[in-house]
Every structure is written in C-alpha cells, then in structure tokens.
Amino acid sequence: MTYQLIIKGGRVLSPGDNVDMIADVAIDDGKIVSIKPELGDDANRVLDVRGLLVTPGLLDLHTHVDFGMRTVGVNARGVNPDLIGVRAGVPTIVDAGTTGPMNFGGFRNYVIEKAQTRVLAFLHAGRGGITMEPDVRYEDDVNVDFFETAVANNRDIIVGVKMRLMGPGLQSLGATIVELAKSAARKVKLPLMVHCGDHYSKFDGAGEVTRAALRLFEKGDIIEHTYTPIPGGHLTDSGDISSELRDAVDRGVLVSVAGGGMHFSYRVAQTMLDAGIMPSFIATDLNSINHRQGCWSFTEVLSQFLALGFPLKDVIELATIKPALAVHKDDVLGRLTEGREADISILDVVEGDWYYDDIEGNQIKGQQAIMPKATIRRGEVISVDWGPHPWGWLPAPIV
Ligand SMILES: [Zn+2]
User: Fold this and answer.
1) Does residue 360 sit within a domain?
2) Are residues 28 and 63 both part of a single domain?
C-alpha cells in the first residue's frame, strides 16, 4: 500500500513502549500504522530523519496560552499555543489554569479550538483563573457549582484543577484556598495542581501555609514549583526539606518542577535530588514573556535536565509517557503505538558547550542539547520556527 507518510531511518525512542531502535514509522489517515526496521519508501511523502530522534509527541504539562484574552499592557501573558506547541516540536500542551469557570468558554472557542496544537487544560477553581489576578481573595471566589458545570461541559479537554498559593488570598485565607480547590477537585474526580511559591507578595508566612496545605494533597495531586527558592517553597529556614513535602511524596503526590524562569533554583533542586525527590515529569510554565527570556522552550528545559545529569532516555520519558500518566491520558498520549493518532516529535541531540542560569544567579553547564526539527500532528508534518533566541533553538553557548 502507499502510505501517507514514512518517517525514515531515525532513532525511535519511546520509553513508554520500551522501544529504542533505528526504525521507520509509517503513517496513514493521520494514524500510526506500522513501526519496523525497514518499511521501504512507498509513501506520498518520505521524511528522511537519519541521525535524528523520533519520539512520541512531547507533552508540556504547564503552559499559559490564553493568547489575546487579556488586554495588551494589562497583564497580557498568554503566548500563542502554536508558537510553543507545534512550532516548537511539541504537539500537545496543557494550559495550567489560566482561566476559570467564568471564562473557559471564551478560551475554548477562541484559542483552543483555533490552535493546530492539541491544547488540554487545568481549570482554575477560582472564577476567572489567573486572567483575573489575584485569582482568589475570598471564599466566594470559588463557586463549586459553576466549576462542576464548566467541567461537565468540557470533559474532553479539562484534565485537572488548578490553584495557586500566592497573593492576597494566601494571607487572608491560608490553606483554606487549597481546601476549596480540593473540594472542587473531588467533585469532578480530577487531579489538583497547586502552585507553591509566593512571587506575588513574597509573604513571610507563606512557608507555613504551604506546609499546612500539603497535608491536604492526595495521591495523584501535583505540587508545582517544587524546586522554587521563593517564600512558600519546600525548604525550611534551616535549608532542610519540610517533612510535609516528604510525607506528600511518600503518599504518591506528584512532583512538578516547572521553572518559568523564576521558580527553579539549582541549590534547591540539588537538595531535593540528593534526597530522592525526583520530578514526576518535566514541564515549562511558558508564557508570552518567559519564552523570550529565562525559559525559552520545552526542548531547552529538557536540555537543562541533561545538564543536571539525567540520561536522555529518562528526559524523554519525563516529557512523554510520564506527563501523559499524570493527566490520565496515556491511552492517547505519550506512546508510539500502532493505531494511535500520529503525534510525533522529531528532535536533534547536538553536542557542544552550553550554560543555563537559574533565578539565584547560579549556573550549570551541559554538553548535549535537544532541539526540535519538526512536529507531526495527526500525521501532518509541521515545520518548527526559528526559535526563541536570536541565534535559534540551541541554548546559550559558552564562548
Ligand atoms: Zn504557571
């Protein structure tokens, strides 16, 4: 038969399928139909990817893509989903609660439905989500009935519940913020992601509130910004890991370490990694500001983990099957399986000398960087753009 597309000769690396081999991938009607060492070249298009990596579509579980929903100059921070999605080697992204029950309809109709990238979403438990900062000031800002209705109407793309422990609500409501979000999450039976780290007011009591809130987390809930150095993070004043964080991880609560250019400290990361508190998946927290400064791209964040000493296979696992499992979408995402929709990332692993700065002014160096070469979304080949740096996709070189 003549296939729609054959991706030829790449290193197919799919940790979720236990596959790491040189192979061809045949696609027809937007679906993966065969993965074999040699499939010939009888296809409408043959994409020669010898020397490149072929992985299940990368899945960035923390982004803000309410593109055009906020007024320019007034907190407009949503980035175009395709710019950090299919144009960056990432077929699927998850918006981390930028909108709430009151404005998810607009987000879905005018942004999500128009994107070529598959966009899933955490729905913020607060009425207007992050678009109407501060997200939560009073208990009334969480309306569980409205929340339930919004989820019921959008179950196909809402994969979790979001809340942030920061700002005036953190001081006025304390851990009650998380209690409110948890009651919403229980109603809809979805995982809760909570942002920890009060970069808004840098409230001194934030650490205590975070520790109280962590006791409410259940297995499968997500602690966000686990490696943050900002008040409300997880190290005590003496630099130890809080017992509440350790207990939560022992209960099966997931560890997210999205940095977004602000919430990643090598000092905190090393303390956590030495104690075995590993990321459950890798994500970015990309928005319209940090994709030009400090966070750059999903592949650059993955490269940073290579520089931290994570093997390539682990990094790909943490960017494909692991986030798919975290949002209970591993039946459709995170694997390269015959019969599935063909969402694939074509990547290059480039040798060199690069450096990565963190928010505390510390630096790490790496010798391998991942850069996107093309995205396959529903079987369609999409070119990546020029990249976030003036010189393109690769991280800052040591000169
Ligand atoms: Zn975020």
Assistant:
1) no
2) no
Domain region containing 384:
3-56+338-348+372-397
The pLDDT of residue 204 is above 90: no
Bond preceding residue 134 cis, omega within 30 of 0: yes
Percent of the chain at pLDDT above 70? Answer: 100
Per-residue pLDDT at 200 exceeds 90: no
* First-residue to last-residue Cα distance in the chain: 51
C-alpha 63 to ligand 1 mean position (Å)? 6
Ligand 1 center to residue 47 CA distance, Å? 35
Same domain, 237 and 278: yes
| 6 Cα: distance to centroid of ligand 1 (angstroms) | 37
78 shares a domain with 50? no
Cα of 95 vs centre of ligand 1, distance in Å, is: 8
The tens digit of pLDDT for each residue in 2-51 reads: 999 999 999 999 999 999 999 999 999 999 999 999 999 999 999 999 99
The rounded Å distance from CA 194 to ligand 1 centre is 10
Distance CA 338, CA 307 (A): 33
Ligand 1 centre from 128 Cα, in Å?
15
* Confidence band, pLDDT 50/70/90 cuts, at residue 386: very high
Domain boundary residue among 271, 295, 326?
A: 326
Q: How far is the CA of 298 from the centre of ligand 1 (A)?
A: 14
What CATH number should be reported for the domain holding residue 389?
A: 2.30.40.10
* Residue 366 domain flag: no
Q: State the distance from the centre of ligand 1 to the C-alpha of 11, rounded, in angstroms.
A: 33
Taking the centre of ligand 1 as the mean of its atom positions, its distance from the CA of residue 291, in whole angstroms, is 13
3-state class (DSSP) for residue 15:
helix
DSSP state of 109: I
CATH code, domain carrying 198: 3.20.20.140
CA of 285 to the centre of ligand 1 (A): 5
Whether 215 and 260 share a structural domain: yes
- Identify whether 306 is part of a domain: yes
Q: How far, in Å, is the centroid of ligand 1 from the Cα of 66? A: 12
Distance in Å, CA 365 to ligand 1 centroid = 26
Distance CA(310)–CA(152), nearest Å, equals: 39
More confident residue, 28 or 168: 28
The pTM of this model reads 0.97
Domain contains 231: yes
